[in-house]
Amino acid sequence: MKANHLLQLSTLALFIVMGACSGEKKAETTPEEKIKVTVQTAQVENIQQQETFTANIEAEIVNQIAPAIPARIRKIYVDVGNYVSKGQKLVDMDNTSLDQQQVQLNNLEKDYQRYQELFKSGGVSQQQLDQMKTQVDVMRTAISNLKENSALLSPISGTITARNYDNGDVFGQKPILTVEQLNPAKALVYISETFFPKVKVGMPVDIRLDIYEGESFQGKVKLIYPTIDPNTHTFGCEISIPNNQMKVRPGMFARVAFNFGEMPHVTVPDASVIKQTGSNDRFVYTVVDGKAVYNTVRVGQRLNDKWEILSGINPGDVVVTTGQTKLVDGVAVEIIK
Q1: Which of 3, 212, 306, 309 is most buried, taking the most CB atoms under 10 A from its CB?
Q2: pLDDT of the residue at 160
């Protein structure tokens, strides 16, 4: 009897403990806390499609001034930095060989006249006369070449940019002078193959040089290379740049901007685009059915307080503009105004 009483008390105590534990668990259960965020809707806007590429400035034409055969330099008339005109004499070479050849030509011409008289009287054959004429023609050609190499003229109007010898030196492998045409100047730019169908000869471009901060120069597409480099997937393009003030110089680093017209693209507020720590990736949170959704995006141009979105966000998506620091993918959110 006593034992049954003790068993009943133990069972009662066990139910009390279980009830207490069950009550504590219900007290700890709370509804899911929602993170407060502000949002805006992604819009579609017509955006000027500008792409900028780096380039090096070059001279429009570069001529190396050198004789065809080694000889001693008699006199150089110009120096680095001098402006020269087309046809202007730049260098006199030693003409000792020219004088000797001229004497030989005079003698050959006299012999040829004598052969012509002998031919009329039958003293020499037609073959002998022809052979003598050939010798005269060869000597005249040789003298003409020597004359061209005794006085070196500038083939273009331009600026002397290099001088490698002094008067009295013997011409070797390097050119005596370098003449460059600097007006117009030229920018050589390599462009991604994506834009090959869009780049046209005559297209205006904007050029900026790091050395002239805030100043731009206008140019036009002069030449488009017809092939794509299989390694870099780029193609070459030459830009002609008017250079009347001679501010653009070969060797300068340039940024060339192409405008490919307007295209409709999605835009989102600048505050909605977050840069991934440790990389160049960017992401945007959107709100779908009351929950945050993580979206990796590819951005285009920054437009004041907006970003152009090339992929990752669709028109009409609701993007989070504040509160992103507390968000993770799938968390519940509350939109506040």
Answers
A1: 309
A2: 96
